[in-house]
Structures are given as C-alpha cells and as structure tokens.
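Can anyone check this?
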Amino acid sequence: MRVPRKAAVLTAAAAAACIAVSACGSVQMGAAAITGNSRISSATLTDEVANLNAAYQADRARGITPQRPVGQEPQQVLTWLITFRIYDHLATQHRIYPTPAQVQHQLSALNTAAQQNSVTLDQYVSAGGALPPNLKPQLGRYFVILSVLEHRLAGGKPPSTQAEQAQLQSAIARQQCLASKSLGITVNPQFGQFDYSSYAVVPAPSNLAANPTPSKPASVKLTPPC
C-alpha cells in the first residue's frame, strides 16, 4: 500500500584523520548535530531511530510498506529533528507563536488524510514520512509555522496562479535557507552530512583507505545557496 506524503518537506564529510569519533571536534562530543547554540544529542537520535524502527515493524505486520529507503533511518530521523529546529528558528524570526489548538488542527487534518488512505495517523507519518510517531506534536507545530509563514508571505491571500505559487515557494525556500544558514548546521560525519539542495541529511562519502580521495555527489550542496 502506498502512503503519500502530505507535503514536500523541506529534511561535511569526516576528515581522514577523524577515525575516532571523539577526536573530530566539538560536534562529535555526544552530538549528532549542532544547530545554533544547541545540539541534537546522539542519544536522542538513537532513541528516535529505535522508535521509527519499532513503528516500521508494526507497519509491516499490518501489510504497510515504508516508503523511504531502507537502511537510512538515522539520516531520515535526523533530517526531521533538524527541520523542526529550522522551523522553530523561523517562528522566532517571524514572531509566529503556534497554539495547542493550531497544532491539533494540523494533526486533525493529517488524521483525515490518513483515514482516506485506510491507515492510522501513526502509520501515515511513519510509513509515509519516516517520522517516529511520538514526534507528531512537533510535526503539527511545523505545519502551523509553515502555514502562517505562507499566509504572510502571500500577503494574506492564497496564490491564484501557477506563477504566484512558484513565487511563494521561492520565498519560503529563501526563508528556510536563511534560517538554516544562521543556525550554522553541522552534522556529525558518523551520521552523514547536511545537503542544502534538499535540506536533508544524506550519507557521508566513505574515507576508507581503499577510496583515499572520495568525491561528493554533484547534487549535494554543503553550503547554503542564499
């Protein structure tokens, strides 16, 4: 069964000398990623990956196949955790204050979409979006911030043409880029690297002796384009 996504979201390689994780600088000191003045701990990431894998197991038991690549759960979960930090930063910058009622409204809309696909909300966000179900409140908050930001950037009215829609998406992308840039996002190479072309954590290239001069894929942008 295919579970579609509600919205398109969004979500540095280790030096050769950094064989031991603890020797590679501050980002490795128990952190999976650094965003601004705070960090996402490796322990938090490990726990949330376990939550996602438990959800995947439950999904498969009900005949629901996860839609994201298998084996990339750490990158998938870390992408969400960083995305939530980016949008929290956007909320601060634009003085957006999500209320519990607004968050619940967004989750209700997601639940309606899940029911239309004959799945539960937990199955919808895990199988369809690689999100640990316990992070649903953060997902609702993310959609509130995105919705308010879109409303403001569109001048209070929804776009009525494809050109206006493209212009709005470009404006959203720029705000996301600027927020990401100001946070100075750094990902522990143990878990991957942050790709600014997709705002997602992707696997880092190998630095094994068998491949002494690896090159990053051309599609990966390691610096903000704004």
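Reply from J.R.: I decoded it. The radius of gyration is 18 Å.
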